[in-house]
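Record pair follows.
FIRST:
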Amino acid sequence: MATVFDVAAYILQRLGPITAMKLQKLVYYCQAWSLVWDDRPMFENRIEAWANGPVVPDLYRAHAGQFVIEAIRGNSDAIDRDGKDTIHAVLDTYGDKHPQWLSDLTHQEDPWVQARGDAQAGDRCDTEITHAAMAEYYGSL
């Protein structure tokens, strides 16, 4: 199975340098739609409901302190054909969107909202956004 680093590396190969926020939201949507379309997770790394939207902490630690990400150590060859097709579809839908637009969109969607629970806007939160929550919500769209 691919890792979030493999997915991030592939996204960066396709789009070129992008902001850290945008990269985080795109890997989140790759995971969500893989659960729906491919009936499996794209990667096993945990996704948490942070204040600015879904974040993969492992990926965050790899790019912490960088606003624009040019490259991430990952192996895009670890992603199979179905995974790459899912990434392409996600990038076709979300790839041209502004990072803040993507963050705002996640704030309207049940997986992030439910994982945040009673946390107020701007509060720290490390609650996991589960595969089940993503599959249920995005599968209903």
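SECOND:
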Amino acid sequence: METGVRSNPDPSFRTQRWSALDGKVPVDERIAGTSGVPQEPNPEPPTPVELWARRILVSLYVVICIILGAALVILPWMPWWTENNLLFHYPALRGFAANPFVRGAFSGLGLLDIWLGIWEAVQYKETAS
């Protein structure tokens, strides 16, 4: 009668398995730290076209983030924010947009957007990935 639990004939198997977690006895390659995912030995370096395309995309991303962020920081505090034709037709939305918390939330999103643009510019590295 089989219960579904397999017993290992090697009595030291349990001890080896748990000591392998401590880094003392590697049982096999899977436990020792290799992921089993094949990796390319030497990836090809990017071509000049790919390199320039990556540079241009990062530059555009940084510029768009900074411009959009600056607009989101400044615009909520201008009179135009609540005094426009769209909000004249919706008084409840106008009151919501005039709330200082909402204005501050939009300005905070603008600061976050500026920070993301600057962070991307600082973190950019020309690697082969």
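COMMENT: Residues 59-123 form one domain.
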